[in-house]
Amino acid sequence: QRVGKAQGILERLNAGEIVIGDGGFVFALEKRGYVKAGPWTPEATKEHPEAVRQLHREFLRAGANVMQTFTFYASDDKLENRGNKVTYTGVQINEAACDLAREVANEGDALVAGGVCQTPSYLSCKSEKEVKDIFKRQLDVFVKKNVDFLIAEYFEHVEEAVWAVEVLKTTGKPVAASLCIGPKGDMHGVSPGECAVRLVKAGAQIVGVNCHFDPMTCVETVKLMKEGVEKAGLKAHYMVQPLAFHTPDCNCQGFIDLPEFPFGLEPRILTRWDMHKYAREAYNAGIRFIGGCCGFEPYHIRALAEELAPERGFLPVGSDKHGNWGAGLEMHTKPWVRARARRDYWEALKPASGRPLCPSLSTPDCWGVTKGDTELMQQKEATSKEQLKQLFDRSKSH
Predict the structure, then answer these.
(1) pLDDT tens by residue, 98-141
(2) CATH 3.20.20.330 for domain 9-323
(3) Where are the transmembrane segments (predicted)?
């Protein structure tokens, strides 16, 4: 096991260590009743800090080495977008997020990562300076709270991600950058390899992808990024934090195009055994920062840590309540369940949905709009009934 808890993210990665990330906070807390789907903003850090703290602790027990601050969509322009009204400012939410993450990180072998993500201002074609000012306001909190490193995550456009990296790197702290893209590239068609090159040149030491696609699709995308960086003669570390949902039918927009998004995705959830395959695939691809995003629960992260235990040299604390490959079932009262206490059973399993009329794939909503399209111009006012009617009518025509 690693010696010296003070080592930072780059020291760990430079030493060849595997860093396990945490999971998807907005989805997990929405299901628990602390986040509203739609805005997806993280005011729970102030309204229900006990819920955020507990989720951090569960991911830590599961083996996560990174406590990412619950600051997703916590920029002021997002907090007040489309009629969303919260009692707290972005600064208050982000400061509370940093305190909660640090409190739990100190309970184990974890680092605190301050995160920023894409902004409504960018989609509304605001200037580079206006968008960078939004990142700077968030960054001031991360500097004040002295997070261990910074993550620019969930960017659909590499241009905005580059702007974020350029702001974050001014602190001198390590910077990771992850795009929510698939193998086809960003929303303006920039390839994964070119995206990665631009991020590294902007100052990111760790590059990769998060969200929008399933684990195997994300690993494939990071492979393309790695190829691009190496072809350009550059060096970087690589990260991947995918969805916990199967998304073979997604197009370049990812799972938000799926008709099941966000309230009907449960039939797509990956099992813990799927996560073992993902962890091994990511490791074999040379990725050493391996975590999760939307849909990931602590047991998923535990599966990553258990699969990579031979390389890491230890199991997470949470494995005390989980027998290796179902070994705990040896104690079950029913003999046919005891017969499942073996690896080959779970590796060969093809889970059924239990839904007789459920299709195996869906038809995504391919609206094809992105930054620069009038339909993506954001507003402070709540979406009007007339605006909704236009959207409903358009949706019926697809």
Answers:
(1) 999 999 999 999 999 999 999 989 988 899 999 999 999 999 99
(2) yes
(3) none
